[in-house]
Specification:
The chain has 157 residues and is mainly alpha-helical. The chain has a domain at 34-134. Helix content is 43%, strand content 3%. It has three helices and two strands. The protein has helices spanning 55-77, 87-112, 117-134; strands at residues 43-44, 51-52. A two-stranded antiparallel sheet has the order 1-2. Helix 1 (55-77) runs antiparallel to helix 2 (87-112) and helix 1 runs parallel beside helix 3. The longest helix has 26 residues, at 87-112. It is found in: Membrane. Keywords: Copper, Copper transport, Ion transport, Membrane, Transmembrane, Transmembrane helix, Transport. Belongs to the copper transporter (Ctr) (TC 1.A.56) family. SLC31A subfamily. The chain crosses the membrane at residues 57-76. InterPro entries: Cop_transporter.
């Protein structure tokens, strides 16, 4: 060690000027974007500064993500279009419902990309509960129009 400098050790780079607070040189505290899973209520999910540092709002956020995942599963397995509709009307309705389903699914994916373990768990739980309610045979009555009992594509005409 010569002149107070350790060999092989570089001094840390100075922070960018955009991080400095002009007059006194103090750094601004910005929320860090996590790139690994973390557990905690201080997260930013879907929107800037939401849910914030409030534990209650974090639970509202979890409920919102859970509901989005259940709705995605419902839209994936529902049959909202009645038989006998014209092909054009049926096709447009299918396209509209598909667009809504994909948009909501991407919102769930973006919420999971917050890397918050709680958000990840409620997204998986929402998809699980949604599939159990709408996709599995647990709560479905046999459909007399379905001759072989096979699953038809979602939203089929």
């Amino acid at each position: 060690m010569e002149h107070g400098h350790m060999e092989g050790m570089a001094s840390p780079p100075s922070p960018p000027s955009s991080m400095m607070n002009g007059s006194n040189g103090m750094m601004h505290h910005k929320m860090m974007m996590h790139m690994t899973f973390f557990w905690g209520t201080n997260a930013e999910v879907l929107f800037s500064k939401w849910p914030g540092s409030s534990t209650g709002m974090y639970y509202v956020c979890l409920l919102f993500v859970f509901a989005l995942a259940v709705i995605v599963e419902w839209l994936s397995h529902c049959r909202l279009i009645k038989a006998g509709s014209s092909d054009v009307v049926c096709g447009l309705a299918q396209t509209f419902l598909h667009t809504i389903r994909v948009g909501l699914a991407y919102m769930v994916m973006l919420a999971v990309m917050s890397f918050n373990i709680g958000v990840f768990l409620v997204a998986v739980a929402g998809h699980t509960v949604g599939f159990l309610l709408f996709g599995s045979r647990v709560f479905k009555k046999p459909d007399p129009e379905d001759e072989k009992g096979s699953d038809l594509p979602p939203m089929s005409c």
